[in-house]
Structures are given as structure tokens and as C-alpha cells.
Amino acid sequence: MDKLKIIDANECFSPDLEPQWIAQAQQGDQQAFHHLYKNYHRRIYALCWRMLADKDSAEDVCQEVFVQLWQKISNFRGESKFSTWLHSVATNIVLGHIRKNKSWIQRVFSIEDQTIEVATVEMPDCSNLDKKIQTLPERARLVFVLFAIEGYRHEEIANMLGMAVGTSKAQYHRARGLLRESLSE
To answer: What is the pLDDT of residue 127?
Structure first.
């Protein structure tokens, strides 16, 4: 087995170095993990923020994603791109957070028509579309983010969210309609 090159802390992120950083992080190298964190933190935070529509929750869940990543990076086998695997891990953690934090009243009544208050939600470099996404009802927002932004298929989304494929498609079209209407105002 080839000896891994020791990575200088001043090196910039390079896709060529990512496999080394992954291998070193899998062996417990905190500096290599820090390089991965620096490269993926903003993307994972954006995913969390879009799905949760709440800055504080997004920060907490993003932190949880990287704690879990540190603990489970040895599970990455390279069968897919690291970014794809990490987004899958992050999505599952966000969905788990949503399930865990539902109040009993939300479990009893449908969440279809509930919307998130967005008066003070802020995100650096947040576009008007991002702000509008945050106002969508929860299920429509989740499906829209997973399908349109993260690139999951409706079959995968249905499985993740425990809904029928047709429901996923309907929620996506509902979200698109609501966004179109909101953006035209």
C-alpha cells in the first residue's frame, strides 16, 4: 500500500487531494478532516437552511452533520462521489431532525397547509428565490429542495419522506406553482 502524502495545512482545496484527505480522515487525521469541512461546510449549511427554513436549526443540524461525518467517515467506501455520499448523510440527518422535533399536535393534524414564518431568516448571499423557498409549506419545501436543488429522483424522495411517488410529484408541482406565484408578486 502506498504511503499517503502528508498534507500541508496551507494547501488549498483541490479535487485531486480529496481522496487523500478522505483516507487520512478515515485514519483519524483531524487536519485532513478540517480540509473536508472547509470545502463542504457552506454547501451542507445551505442544504440544511433550505430544508429547515430556520437559521438556528440549520446551524445546529449542520454541526451535527459534521460530528456524524467524523464518527462515520470510515463507512465511506468510495462507491459514489464523496460529495454525493455526504449530501445523502446530511439529508438523512435533516429529515431525522424534522421528525424528532415535530410536536404531537403536528403529528395529529396535517402539516400540508402550515407555513414557516420567515420574517427574520437570513443567510449570507441569500437570493430572493431562497427567501421564497423558505415560505413554502414544509412538505412542498422539502420535496422542492430535494428534487430541484439536490437532484434526488421522486422515487428516492418518496422513500425518504415516507410518501407515495405521486405525492412527491404533486408536492413538487405545488411548490413550483407557489414559487411562481410568489415571485410574480
So the answer is: 67
State the maximum Cα–Cα separation within the chain, in Å, rounded to a whole number: 61
Q: Which of 144, 132, 107, 134 is nearest to 185 (CA)?
A: 132
Judge contact between 151 and 129, C-beta under 8 A: no
- Average pLDDT, integer, range 13-32: 90
Sorted by sequence, the CB contacts under 8 Å of residue 24 that are 6+ apart come out as 4, 7, 31, 32, 33
Three-state secondary-structure class, residue 162: coil
In order, the DSSP letters of 100-150 are HT--HHHHHS--TT-B---TT---TT--HHHHHHHTSBHHHHHHHIIIIIT
pLDDT tens by residue, 110-155: 444 444 443 333 444 456 778 888 899 999 999 999 998 888 999 9
Segment 61-90, tens digit of pLDDT? 999 999 999 999 999 998 889 999 999 999
8 Å CB contact between 58 and 42: no
pTM of the model: 0.69
The one-letter code for the residue type at 86 is L
DSSP 23-87: HHHHTT-HHHHHHHHHHHHHHHHHHHHHHH--HHHHHHHHHHHHHHHHHHGGG--SSS-HHHHHH
